[in-house]
Structures are given as structure tokens and as C-alpha cells.
Amino acid sequence: MRGVLGAVLIVLLWEGSARGFALPSYTLPAVSEILGGIWAQRADLLSGGATTLLEALLGYGLGTAIGIALATVITILPWSRTGIMPVVMAVNSVPVAAYSPLVLLWFGIGVSSKIVMVTLAVGFTVFLSALAGFDRVDRRSVDLLRSFGAGQASVLWRLRLPAAMPLIAAGMRVATVRSLIVAIVTEMLGARSGLGWIIYQAVVQIDFVQVWAAIFVASAISLAFFGLIGWVERKVIFWR
Amino acid sequence: MSGAVALPAPRGAAGLRRAAPVLMGLGRLVLGLGIAAAVWEGAVLGFGIRPEYLPRLSAILSTIAATPEAYAAGFLRTALETLIGFAAGVAVGVLNGVLFLRAPVLRDMLFPVFVVSQTIPVIAFGALVVLWFGNTLLAKAVIAFYLTFFPVTVNTLVGLQSVDPRQMALLRSFGATGRQVLLRLLLPSALPQIFVALRLGASLSLVGAIVGEWFGDTTGLGVILLQAMYTEQVTVMWAAILCAAVLGTGFYALVALAERYLVFWGAEA
Amino acid sequence: MQRRTLLTAAAAAPAILPFVARAQGTQKATLRLKWLAQTQFAGFYLAKARGYYEAEGIDLTINPGGPNLLTENLVATGADTFGLSGGTDSVFAAREKNLPVVCIGVSHQQTPFFFVTRADGPIRTLQDFKGKTVTTWYTGANYVLLGMLAKIGLKPGDFTMQPQQVSVTPFVEGQIDVVTATKYNEFYTLMTRMGREKLRTFVAEDEGITFPRDTLIVSETTARQKPETVRGFLRASIKGWRDALKDQKAGVDVVMAASPALDRAHQEFMLVEAGKLMTAGAAAQQGLFWIDDAAIRSAHDFLRQNDVIKQPVDLAKAYDGSFLAAIPVADRMA
């Protein structure tokens, strides 16, 4: 309820300043203008949004799986940590967009290059969170469990995973938003469809209302995705 | 002989590990890097990978050596933008977390707005950033900030909320003030969680700075990267990627080091 | 209270600004380029390095461009004083969307890009594009391609057109049949990787289509209120460009100093090609930055026919040659 209030306040402020200062649409279009733009372009935005969402969801699923898997490997085989960590860090330090020429070269201009990029970005976020979560357990509890003859895998399942759940969940929540952004940014650098492609073309055609219309749709999708993961998270953690 | 020597050995190694973990880490890092470099060079040569896909490491390094001042200037500039953005992002993020804990009304009102703000791809509003902040170092730092503050906010809040209410009640019963509870109990307990976000933020702020440099700038790793990308100077592009990787990894390592000194929960619990 | 302070400040600003300007003898201005520093813009960098803008009383800062940074937008909002924007196409688009920008000069007199195929491949004429895969930029070049092919009777469905990614590698490796290349950038990469003799080019001008690009723009406000500054900027820029085209080493040097990681050989090539584009067509008689009304009209009508611009643009308002006309022709010749 309060969230709605906050959103309404922002919208009013935006609309008011756009109208009040008579800002031209190339500076900041009014919200009403953008909503009109969305309605006018609904067919394009719907199909573009569907493409982007598909890329984001697939990449998100893959990234989450890989991130957790990699963190698990490092936890079970501690010696692999020094090898894997610097490589992961080095790869992640470079902005996604810098890889895009390479990824476009390797995976083409279609959907798969976007999925790869999203997988990278999401995978890293989830990996870091999961690893921090696994490391979080009390040293003595681990020793205790191990003294009863539990292996690393058993320690992971009984002790580390439950302790890591909130952190993994937080990482997964942050990653929802990242997944859509990365899909969009990659689309802007080369694609055949999707919201990023719409934004790119709209900028070229100097159609700022359409740029913002596409951004609004992207935000709405992200927000829904964020909410969905939050909801799932509450269910799962409550159940645990 | 073997029995007599073998017994103290692990203890000695453990002592060394405790005494100089940084040195050990450094040694292993150098070793790891050496192996990675050898694998890189060997793979490119061995599999005959063409430079368009992946140039040899030695070719990249000699590209850097040809105009070291360009890369040094870019490195420093990008590092500065990253640091400013990161510091601001962390300060605001932690503050947000505390604020949201204390005033759930604010949390409910602002949190969705923050989420929405994070759903807007930075690259889409480059023109707005230039309009508002011009072509300054600040403009880049703002983007680094924008990418950093959100994960810090989320994690601070989660960390603060996961503090055991019984511990809070106990501290309160001893007459601790809200400020004391915050500084003595809440923040220290949330620190591990916050540090996860700081590590994430270390990478994100660098990404923000580099992308920020794409909105019209003259120096920076992002500038070199972009220029090389469009003129297809593949080795230059990789040289910039390498510099960014060094900067990012170094920054990450610093944050991790700080974490090691500041977070003691492993021994506490 | 706040409002009054704001009003006072607003009232004081115009009063103070000329005073500051007069006191220093110069006024601050910025030039927003369409891309990062490269010899495509050598003349501006050289003019600044040699103090030509200063001599005109302009303290000029050169701001590079970037992806998704629209020069028209930045000039229209006043964030930048001058702009070297995309081209006639982007000026039309800006005017159609009511952005108050005016073009005061055109740098590249002809279409700066062409379509490239393999010399030993199956494509010998435009007719052979039928059934082939073509990549191009969806920033205007796509319409030039469609227009060229329409003239010989090919419709959009007769060939596959795809957005072109940054790298030309897919073409070099034979994954696609036709690639779009600017004469000064992508073509250099293609030449170095495949050899000039291996490449066949298809030029828009051969099909009667021309697409002048790299337009100098100012806001309507600047054009109205500071005509002398605009003239001074043009004089200094032309002087810089004349120097850069005559003494190309100086032109390359100044750009390499601004951006040392660039490839010098490529930049030398780029300056030669930029020079050709700038002195082509009517500029051969009328000098640098000439606004060739016929070429502009032809580009406009072409885009209008293809429904890229939805309504006719008032060319007299969008293109103002008066600032250029104030400079004697002899001083404008490269």
C-alpha cells in the first residue's frame, strides 16, 4: 500500500515537473505522454518485451544454477578456490558490454548471445552470495559435524545450505534486475528484436517518448520478476 | 626419521599460514597467474586461435608496453571514478539500510522506487547523465554509485533484520540506547552480509565507471575499450580488458582483505 | 522566497555573463563530436591546438561522443554549444521531432559508407544481391541500401537484411555476403584483413542516392543570439581543417596526442578518406562545410519517399548557410 503511495508520489512529481517547467520531450517527457506512447506501440513493445523476458529468464535460470554449483564445488573442494576465484573475479571486472563484440562473434546476433551474457552476470552475483553464505557457518559446528564422520557434502547439505539460504535468496533477488538490464544492454549493441533493440532504434530516430516507453515496460517486467522471486523466497524459506 | 620430521611439519605449516596468510595468498596468486598466462599463450598458439577471437597474451602485453602512459592514465582515471562512486554507494547504501530498519514506512515507500531505479539500463539514459552532470568525473562516479548503492541497501537491511531479537532485548534490558544497539550489535552482526554487497559493489562500481566513460570522455579504460572496439584494434581492446580485470581484481582483493580484518563472526558465534 | 532568489539569479546571469566574457576577452563554448577522438575530427583538434578558436574569442572544449549519445539532443538542450552530429538524416529526424537545432555546415559531402562484397564471390552487380544475406546499420544505411536495391527492382523480401554488429569478422569469414563499411573505418579493417583487390564496392552515388553526413549544428538560440560566435567557430574550424588536410602529419599527431592508444596507420588512412569526403561534390568549388542544397533536398526527398520522415521538413529553417557565406570562398577552400 505504502509502495503504491511512493510510486504515485514519484509519478506526480515527474508529471508535475515535466508539465510545470514545460520540459520538451527530449529532456524529459511527461508520464502521461509515455503511457500514451506505450499504448500506441503496444504490439511492438509486447513482442519486444517477450523476447527480452525470455532471454532474461533463461539466462537467469542458467546463471543461478551455475553460480550455486560453482560455489558448491569450491566449498566441497577447498583447494580449487585459489584457482577459480581470481579467474571469476577477472572475468567479472570487465563490463558486460566489453564482451559483447566477442560474444556476438561467438554466439551470433540472435537470442543465444543475450542468454550467455545474462548467464554471466547472474551467475556471478549468485556465486558470490552463495559462497559467502556457505562460508558463514560456525567453524566449530562444522568441526563437530565432521567429528561425527560427516563428509564435506553432508556438511554442505545439513549445515551450510540452510545457513546460506537467506544470502542466496538476497543474491537471487538482486540478480533479477541485473538479468533484464544485461539482456537489454546486449540487445542495444546488436540484436534483431527485444526492448534493447527498440530503445536503440528509438534513440536513432530521436523518438524519446518511445525510448521511455520501452524503459517503462522493462521496469514493469523487472519489478514483476523481482516480486515473483521475493514471493517464492518467502514461501521456500518459511517452509524451511 | 620420517615419523619424527613429519609430525611437526603440519604444525609448522599451520603456523606459517597463520603468521603470513597474505604472503601465502600472494604466492599462490602469482603461481595461479603464471599458470593462467601459460595456458592462455599455449592455447592460442596450440589451437591456432586467430587474434580476432583471442590474441596472444604476449601480444597484448607488448601493446600496453608500446604506449604505457595511455593505459596508466586510463587506469588511474577509471580507478578514481570507481573509488568515489563506490564510497558514496556504500555510505548511502548502509544509511538506507539503517533508515529502512528504523522507519518501515520509508522502506515500504522507497524500496519499490529503488528497485524501479535499478531496472533502468544506464546506457539508455546517457544523454540525461551528461545533461545533469556534464562531462565531469562526477558523472562517471554517479553511475558507479547508482550501481553500487542498491545491493548495499538490500544486504544491509537483510543483515540488520536477521539479528536475533532476543539479543536486542537483552541489550535493551541493560539500558542500551538505540545508538548503542545499532553500533554494538546491529551493524557488527550485519557486517558479513554487508560485505557480500561490498564485494559485489566493488565489481559493479568499476562497471559503472567504465560504462560512464562511454558518454563522451577523453581518458579512461572505457574510452580505450570503446575506441578499440569500433576500430577493431583487437589487441588494444584486450589490453583495456586486461587493465580493467587487474583493477577489478585488485579492488575486490582489497575489499576482501578489509573483510578479513573487520569480520570476526567465525570465531564469535 | 526561493522563487525570488531564483528570479534574481536568472536576471543577473545574462548581465554577468557578457561582463565575464568581456573581461577575459573570450567566451566558453563546447563542441560535441559524434564519436571519440579520431582523425575524422582532426581539423577541430588542430584548430584548438593552434589557438584558432582562441583568436576568435572562443574558449572551446571538445567533448567526444559515444554510443547512444545523441549530439542533436545535447545541442538542443544547451548542454553543448556546437555539435558535429550524425548527418543530414539525423538533422531531419531532429527537426521532425521539433528539436530546435540548425545545421550550419556539412562535413562529408557524399555518402561516407558503401556496401562491400568479395571480388571473387558470386555478387558482381546489385542484381546479384537477390537471395543473399546483407548486414547493415539500422541508422540510415539500411534505407540507402533499400533505396539502391529498389532502383533496380529488388524488394525487401528478395534478400535477407540483418543488423550489423560491431565487428566485420562474420563477413571476413564468409558467413554473410554483403557488409556495410564506412570508407574511413570498417573498410580499412577489411582491407588489412583481406586485401583491397579482394573487395568489390557498391556506392550509393552510382544509383543516384546521396546521403551527406557529419553535420555541424547549433541550437536556434545560439544561431539567433550569437551569430558572431558561430561565424568565428566556423572560421577557426575551417582554418584547422585546411591545415590538417595540407599537413596531414600534424593532423594525425594532434589526434594521437589526445588518444595515444589509437593505431597510427589507421588514423593516417582515415584522415585521407575524410579529406576526400570533405572536398567531394560541390565542396570542390564552394569550399569546406558547404551546404549543398541539391544534395540535401535529394536526401530529404529520398527519406520522405521511404516514409522515414513522416512529414516534409522545412529545409530553409533546418539548414542555414548564412554563417558560412560570411566567410570568403577563398578562405574556405581546402
Folded structure, characterized:
The complex is a heterotrimer of chains A (240), B (269) and C (334). Chain A has 240 residues and is mostly helical. Chain A has one domain: MetI-like fold (Orthogonal Bundle), CATH 1.10.3720.10. Chain A has ten helices and no strands. In chain A, helix 2 packs across helix 10, helix 5 crosses helix 6 and helix 6 runs antiparallel to helix 8. The longest helix of chain A has 38 residues. Chain B is mostly helical. Chain C has 334 residues and is an alpha/beta fold. Chain C has 17 helices and ten strands. In chain C, the strands form two sheets. Chain C has a five-stranded mixed β-sheet, with helices on both faces. Chain C has a five-stranded mixed β-sheet with strand order 7-6-8-5-9. In chain C, helix 2 crosses helix 10, helix 10 crosses helix 11 and helix 11 crosses helix 12. Chains A and B meet through helix 1, helix 4, helix 5, helix 6 and helix 8 of A and helix 3, helix 6, helix 8, helix 10 and helix 11 of B. Chain C: It comes from Roseomonas indoligenes. Chain C: Pathway: Cofactor biosynthesis; thiamine diphosphate biosynthesis. Chain C: One of its GO terms (biological process) is thiamine biosynthetic process.
Largest interface: A-B, 59 and 64 residues
User: What Rg of chain B is obtained from the alpha carbons, in whole angstroms?
Assistant: 23 Å
Task: Give the helices and strands of chain B as they follow along the chain.
Answer: HHHHHHHHHHHHH
Major sheet details of chain B = none
Integer count of domains of chain B: 2
The domain count of chain A comes to 1
> How far is it from the N-terminal to the C-terminal residue of chain A, by CA?
28 Å
Q: Percent helix among the residues of chain B?
A: over 70%
The stretches of 5 or more residues of chain A where confidence is low (pLDDT under 50) are none
What is the fold-level CATH name, i.e. the topology of chain A?
A: MetI-like fold
The CATH topology of the largest domain in chain B comes to MetI-like fold
* Count of individual helical segments of chain A: 10
Structural class of chain A: mainly alpha
CATH homologous group name of the largest domain in chain B: MetI-like
Strand content of chain A: under 5%
Q: If classified by CATH, what would the architecture of the largest domain in chain B be?
A: Orthogonal Bundle
